[in-house]
Amino acid sequence: MSTDQVQPKLIIHGGAGGHLKSEAGQAAVRKTLYGILESVYADLQAGGTATEAVVKGAQMLETEPIFNAGTGSVLQSDGQVRMSASLMDGAKQRFSGVINVARVEHPIELAQFLQQEEDRVLSDYGGAELVRELKVPIYDPLVEVRLQEWMQERRDFANKTTKMAGVVAEEELVIKHEDRKGTIGVVALDSHGNIAAATSTGGKGLERIGRVSDSAMPAGNYANDWAGVSCTGIGEDIMEECLAAKIVIRVTDGLSLSEAMERSMSEARGRKRDLGAIAISNTGSISWGKTSEVLLAAYHDGSKMGDTINWNNEELTNSVD
Q: pTM to 2 decimals?
């Protein structure tokens, strides 16, 4: 944490996986990401904290049904929506999260409440009890295209032609790819030099009942005074790489953010992982990386916005300062 005012930075993502083949799909994702960037960055410019920014960004991304988090989450194999989310305040180095919660509009809000609690990570039953305790309105996050997708993929799965649900749904058209997966995430650096990260997901779709993603673990969402990271992709791959914490620790130990991202992504590709990550360091560097085909991310560097939607397939990482 710095006592001097610094230029706020912000990066968000809406998942990773295969290419969006339609121009309409690309335009819809870009428009949504940029709208959220503008709203959240305005709060950072006005003096808002990094934690407030990542919670708001995650809430807005959870609201958008085209992403696989909150409203629009995919279904597990039994046809139920189970969501996970976490929040990490880098200044306090405090982690909180919920795992496989249901019937709630914004899982990230439960993670936010748990920041002040002694017990800071709750599973499905504990999350349901927390919802009742807080008197959070019961909410159904299921959207019709996800139900239709689940029904079709149940048929495809029986014929061994698919493995998981799509990460993005656009209006009545589900943009489907055999290896699509998704999560939403936000990383912010505020004007006081504090960093926070938030991540939320509906899972990979058609998974075993109760399967746990990386999104409510430090493997998928981590921050300290030096850097913050949010991950997306195959949760098991992210967990086995301990990706978010690994990148942050490497920055803490002296690597630049771009070096830490490059080394971590190179290792992951060597082990044939399928994942992506976004990150910000306390120097104001913004970085992203992927081993999947595409990473649906957008950033605000203080003077302009940019995105990774049409990012070169051959590159593992990229960054802006």
A: 0.93
